[in-house]
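User: Show me a protein chain along with its predicted structure.
Assistant: Here is one chain, sequence first, then C-alpha cells.
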Amino acid sequence: MKAHSEQYCLTPTYKPFYMIGYNSPLRDLPAQGVHDDIYVTTTLLDFNDQKLFLFSTDWLHVEDEIVSEIRERLQAQFNQDPKLVLISATHNHQSVRDHMQSAKSGQFNQEYHDHVLDLAVRGYQECSAQLEEVECWMGRKIIPGYYGSRIVYGELADNEVILVEFRNAQNQVVAAICNWAVHSTVITPDNALLTAEFAGNVRRLLKERKGYAPAMIVGAAGDCSTRATRQGNDFNELQRVAQGMAEEISKIEVNEKLELEFERIASTEHHVRYPIDHKEVQRIIDANEEELKTCQDFDRRKILNSMMSGLRRKLTMDEARADWFADTLRLKDIEIVVSPCELASKFGKEIKRLSPAKCCLIFGYTNGRGSYLFPKEYYGLTFETISSGIPAEEVENYINKIIAIL
C-alpha cells in the first residue's frame, strides 16, 4: 500500500469571522482574534489503486452539504469513490462557523467555504503526487488522568488512545492517525479567540515530539470530556492538559505490524420519528430559566444553556426527526466504523470489542452531523437525553445495526 499526508491552515485570513460551539451571546459577534491556528489534515491511503481519502478538520462538526460538495468534486476530478471520502471534525467548540451554509444570517462566508473546497482538491492532488510505499504499525494505550466520564465523575469513559503510523522504506512516518474519544472542550464559552483547542494542540505537540502531525480522529466521545479533571477553563489549563496528553501519547509503543488491503465497505441506515410534547418541553425550559437566575456553578450553567438551545428548537417542530447512517470499512487488519453521531463510550467500547479486526477505529463526527446517542441508563440524568427526547430503544436499534455490519 501507499500513503501520504499534508496539513493546511484553516484560519480565516479576513475579518470579521465568526465562531461556533456554545449557546453564548459572544458567538453572535465577530471573533476577537486568533490564539492559535486551526488546521485540516489530509491523508490519502492507496490500496492497489483503491484510494481512501481522509479530510480531518479542527471544526465543531461537518455539515451534510459540504460533505456532498467535497465528494462531488473529488469524484469529478479524480474519479474518487465518494463512499471512501471521510470528512471529520475534532469537535472543537472554539472553531469557525463561516463555512456553514446553515450559519446565522451574515455569518456564512462564500469565499471561505470555497477555499475549503479548494483545499480538499489541493490536498488530494498533493497527497496523490507524493504517495510512498508504506508499512502500517499500530500501538494503543489507556490514558487516565486528563479526561473521563462527564456523567459519572471519577469513572473512565473510553480512554484508549490508538496510534496508527504509516512508515516508508526509511522508517519515516509519512501519515498517521490518532484515534481517541474525548470532547475537545477545555476553554470557557466566554472565550472569543480562535483556537484549535484540545485536539489541535495535542496534534501540534505530537509533531514537535514525534516529527509528524497525525489526523486527530474522535471516536465515541459523547459522554467523555475534561470536565471532571480540569483545573480551570483558560489557556493555561489547555496547555497543561495538551502537554500531558501529548507526552503520554508519545510513550505509546507503536510496534504491532498490521497487514492492510481493501476488502469491503458495508452500510446501514436508521430513521427515527417521534412526536414532541410542547407542554413538557416548555416546562423544562421554564425550570431551567428559573435555575439559571441563581446558579453560579460554571459547568452547571453551561449544561443548562446547552440544554436550552435544543429545547427551544423543539418548540418550533411538531415532530422530531433523526436520520443516522453508519459505514464500516474493512481494510483487513483495520476496521473503520464511520458515524456522524456523538456515541456514548459504552457503545464505542462494545463496537471495538466485537469487531473481528485486530484494530478497530471509530470515526465519530464524520460525514455529517448527528445526535448524542446514550444508553438507556443515562436517560434523565444528562442534558443530552433530556433535550433530545430520542427514545432509548431507537438508539439501541441503531447500535445493533452497526454491530451487524462489522
